Amino acid sequence: MTTLTPATAADRTGVSIDTLRYYEKEGLIGPIRRSAGGRREYTEDDVFWIGLVTCFRDAGLGIADLREFVAILRSDHTPRDRVVFLRERRSAMEQRVAALHRAMGVLDEKIAYYS
Amino acid sequence: MTTLTPATAADRTGVSIDTLRYYEKEGLIGPIRRSAGGRREYTEDDVFWIGLVTCFRDAGLGIADLREFVAILRSDHTPRDRVVFLRERRSAMEQRVAALHRAMGVLDEKIAYYS
DNA sequence: CTCGGATCTGGAGCGCGCTCCAGGTCAAGG
DNA sequence: CCTTGACCTGGAGCGCGCTCCAGATCCGAG
């Protein structure tokens, strides 16, 4: 199975090497497998997961949120627990969307005023 | 015309006194009028503007964005300049909404999976 | 075998957005 | 007056999320 060097993984995910190591240290990804010499070897699965993390980071989730996300999905939680957690996150995101819409409304007013 | 003390203004806007002073120092609000003794006296207009600032902060705009926002709306820019700026901000917000929707989509998948 | 570029680790540094603190001033009640 | 509490200023401190650095190690090309 082919694996990716840190540089390639960084390139493919758009996340810097430093940030990849930071995410791994914080438990958001990995642990990433190592070669005999100690270098990281990213699998396609790792890349996929990094994509998910990036997606959530872009949506404004913090590192602690994501750590919790990983913990909930990986460890021994009931499906119910997971659904509860996921719904909470979803609801927080809805509120962020609502805040954005409010601000966009204000912008629209101003735009209309100056047009 | 009745004015508000810092504590009252903080209470009414939900923004802490320290943050109000910080916003003023950064040029996001005010300058706030002072009493003979040097204390701040917030007008209803100030409170309204603080509400706008809060709305944009909640939508994720940074301090620098807001400073620019104030500058654009207050100083000698053409309506065209203002509209260009406002549309840029709006478009950035739309992208944030899109990022949120992507993440919510992922969450929905997981929720469906565990339900 | 040697060289150079990629990677490793631990830790320092940084920009943002507050938040807190010390030391002093103002003003209303007693 | 004097006390008390809200407020003032300048500046330090903090949590977050990276980002950068030094010094060592690995490894493929020549």
Could you characterize what this model shows?
2 copies of one chain form a homodimer. Chain A is flat and about 65 Å long. Chain A has 2 domains: about 1-60, Multidrug-efflux Transporter Regulator, Chain: A, Domain 2; about 75-115. In chain A, strand 1 (about 35) and strand 2 form a beta hairpin. Chain A has 5 helices and 2 strands, in the order H-H-E-E-H-H-H. Chain A is mainly alpha-helical and about 120 residues long. The first copy, chain A, starts with 5 loop residues before the first helix and ends with a helix. Chain A has helices at about 5-15, 15-25, 45-60, 65-75, 80-115; strands at about 35, 40. Chain A is about 70% helix and about 5% strand. Chain A has a two-stranded antiparallel ribbon. The interface of A and B includes residues 61 and 96 of A. Chain B binds a DNA duplex (30 and 30 nucleotides) through helix 2.
